Amino acid sequence: MFAHIKDAIFGGDTQGHSHSHSHTHGHGPGHGHSHGEGGGGGGGAGPGPDWTKETVHLYEQQPIAAEIGDKVPKAMRKAYAFDEDTTTVMDFACGTGLIARGLAPYCKSIVGVDINPAMVDHFAEKIHNQGIPLEEMRVVCADLKGTGSELDGQKFDVIVCSAAYHHFESINDITRTLCFFLKPGGCLLVADFMKSAQPVPEDVPNNEGFTEEDIRGAYAGAGLEGFSFDRFTKTKFHGQIVDLFLAKGTKSTV
C-alpha cells in the first residue's frame, strides 16, 4: 500500500511547520535531556542541540541518521513478517520518520508517536505534502502513559522503537507502556546500542548502552514472550564503534 511513498515522502529536504511550542525536547541520540516516558528523535541522530522548528531540518543530514535509517528497518523486516495489507505499526519515538521510511512500503498503516513538537510537525508536513491519507500514515505528539483513551484506543500488530531506549529513565516502565498498545500476539521490536566499556558522551540515563540481560528483563517484566536478541551491525556513534542490537518479543494471546 505504501509503495508510492518509498521514494517520495522522504526524498527531499522539507522544512518543518511554523507552529510554536514550548516543549522542544526529543529522545533521539542527538538529545541530551531525559524523560521518563514518551519519545523523540528515534532513528539515530548524532550529537546536536534540542531539536526545534528552526533546526529540525538538519536532523536527517547527520551521517548516522542515514545509516541507522537504512540498517534498522532492514533488520526489523528480517525479524518480523510485515504484511502490506494487514500490518498496523506504531513507530514510537519516531522523530522525523527515519524508521518509517524503511517500513512504510510493507505496512497497512503507521502511527508515529513523539514528544518533540518540532519533529512531529516536520514529519506531519512530509505526510501532508505527499497527500497521504491519515488512515495510512499519521503522527501524534504525545507522552504515552498506557491508558485506553490514548491514540483513540488503537492497538497495533507491531511497535518499533529505534535509538531511543537509552534515553528513558526506566526501560521497564516504557516497555510495559508499549506492551499495553500491542494487540494480543503483537510484536515489540527495539533497536539500540550495546553496553560498551566507554559510555557514549551524552547526558542521558542509560548512555552506556544495554546488555542482552537488561533488555530481556524489561521484556519479561512486561509479560512479553519468545524473546530474541540480535547484534545485527556496528556503527560509529560519538566517535566510538558500537554494536547495535534488535530485540524482539511477543505479547501473549491469552
From TrEMBL:
Q: Does the keyword Nucleus apply?
A: no
Q: Which GO terms describe its molecular function?
A: methyltransferase activity
Question: What is this protein identified as?
Answer: S-adenosyl-L-methionine-dependent methyltransferase
Pfam families from the xrefs? Methyltransf_25 (PF13649)
According to the UniProt record, where is the region Disordered?
Answer: 11-53
Keywords recorded for this protein, A-Z: Methyltransferase, Transferase
Q: Which domain of life is it from?
A: Eukaryota
Source species, please?
Mycena alexandri
